[in-house]
TrEMBL record:
Pfam families: Choline_bind_3 (PF19127). The keyword Amino-acid biosynthesis does not apply. Cell wall-binding repeats lie at residues 276-295. Keywords: Repeat, Signal. This is Uncharacterized protein. It comes from the Bacteria. Residues 1-29 form the signal peptide. The keyword Iron does not apply.
C-alpha cells in the first residue's frame, strides 16, 4: 500500500509538470516572435482629385514577409457626398496585419516615427491597434479647385424669347445665374445647362433694362462672375414675354407683379411689400400666401375653415367641386 501511494504521488507530480509545460508553451512561443521595429508603405493617390468619385487608394507594403496591407488599399473616411469637393482634406484608413512569427511594437506604433510613408503626398494622422493588427489613418493635402478652368464667356440674349446663354466652362458641374432689372436682382437660379429662359420672369417684372450674371462651379470651387449686355424690354417687346404678371403666367393687374424663384411664386405689391400668412385679392381672385410669402396651392385652413387653391394657378376655387371630390361654396369654404 505504501508503494501504491508513492506511485500515485509520483504520477500526480508528473501530470502537474506536464500541464505547466503545456500552458507555458504558447507564452514561450509568443515571446519568440520577431519584433517589427519599423513600417514602410508606398501610396498611389493619383485618382483622388476634385470631381472624382474614387474612394480608395493603393497601398503596398515595404516588407511582405513581416506585415501586409489588407487588400492593398486604404478606404476614404471623409468624402462629402459622392465626389471629392474643393476644400476637403482627404483621409484614409489602412489595416496592417503582422505575418506569422512577427509582431508590432505596441510601445511605438502610435508614434509617427514608426512609419515611413512614400509617394502620394500623404502624411500621418494617427494609429491604433496591438501587436497583431494596426489601423493607420493618413491624409492628403487639402483639395483646391482650379478656377482657371471655370471661366464663362460669350454671354448672349435671345431678344425674342428671353433666353440667356453662355459658352461652357471646361470642368463645370453647374452654373449660377442671376437676372437683374436695372440694378435690382429679379431671381437667381442654378442649372447644369448652358442656357436659361427668363421669359416669364421678364414678363412678370415688366419693361426695363435686363442683364444677367453667370459663373461656373465645380464641387466647391467657383469661377468669376461674368455680366451680359443689356436687353431692353419696352411696351412693344413686353407682350412677347407674357406682358407682366397679374397672376402666375398671366396679365398685369397694375398693382404689383408675380415673381418666381427656386421656392415658388410670390407677389410683389406696388410698394415692394408682399403678403405673408394671409389671403390677397389679386385681379378679382383670392390667393393664399404662407409665412415665407410664397403662394400656397391645394387645401388651406384658415379661421377654422377649409379652402382649396388651384394647383396650377393658385387661385381659390368657388362654387365648384375640387379635384379630389369636395364641394366648396361661393366664398370658397368646404361644404361639410
Amino acid at each position: 500500500m505504501k508503494n501504491l501511494g508513492f506511485l500515485q504521488k509520483t504520477a500526480a507530480l508528473g501530470l502537474s509538470a506536464f500541464l505547466l509545460a503545456a500552458f507555458a508553451f504558447p507564452t514561450y512561443a509568443g515571446s519568440n516572435k520577431t519584433n517589427i521595429d519599423h513600417i514602410t508603405l508606398s501610396f498611389d493617390t493619383g485618382n483622388i482629385e476634385i470631381g472624382s468619385s474614387e474612394k480608395r487608394i493603393e497601398v503596398t507594403s515595404g516588407n511582405d514577409n513581416a506585415y501586409t496591407v489588407s487588400n492593398e488599399q486604404a478606404a476614404a473616411t471623409n468624402m462629402d457626398g459622392e465626389r471629392w469637393k474643393s476644400g476637403i482634406t482627404p483621409k484614409f484608413n489602412i489595416t496592417i496585419k503582422a505575418e506569422e512569427g512577427f509582431k508590432f511594437d505596441t510601445n511605438a506604433l502610435k508614434n509617427s516615427n514608426y512609419y515611413t510613408l512614400n509617394g502620394g503626398n500623404v502624411s500621418f494622422v494617427r494609429a491604433r491597434g496591438g501587436s497583431n493588427s494596426i489601423t493607420l489613418t493618413v491624409k492628403m493635402p487639402k483639395l483646391k479647385g482650379n478656377a482657371e478652368n471655370l471661366g464663362v464667356d460669350d454671354l448672349n440674349w435671345d431678344e425674342y424669347s428671353g433666353k440667356a446663354s453662355w459658352s461652357p466652362a471646361d470642368t463645370a458641374e453647374k452654373y449660377t445665374v442671376k437676372l437683374y432689372r436695372g440694378s435690382s436682382l429679379v431671381t437667381q437660379v442654378e442649372t447644369s445647362a448652358t442656357s436659361y429662359n427668363f421669359s416669364s420672369e421678364i414678363g412678370n417684372r415688366g419693361k426695363g433694362n435686363y442683364t444677367f450674371k453667370v459663373r461656373a462651379s465645380a464641387w466647391g470651387a467657383h469661377g468669376e462672375w461674368n455680366v451680359s449686355d443689356d436687353l431692353y424690354v419696352g411696351d412693344d417687346e413686353l407682350p412677347r414675354f407674357g406682358g407682366g404678371g397679374g397672376n402666375p403666367g398671366g396679365n398685369s393687374s397694375g398693382r404689383g407683379a408675380w415673381l418666381k424663384d427656386n421656392n415658388g411664386w410670390w407677389y410683389s405689391r406696388s410698394d415692394r411689400s408682399w403678403p405673408k400668412s394671409q389671403w390677397e385679392f389679386i385681379n378679382n381672385k383670392w390667393y393664399y400666401f404662407n409665412g415665407s410669402g410664397y403662394m400656397v396651392t391645394g387645401w388651406v385652413q384658415t379661421k377654422g375653415k377649409w379652402y382649396y387653391c388651384d394647383r396650377s394657378s393658385g387661385a381659390m376655387l368657388t362654387n365648384t367641386t375640387t379635384p379630389d371630390g369636395y364641394r366648396v361654396d361661393g366664398n370658397g369654404a368646404w361644404i361639410q
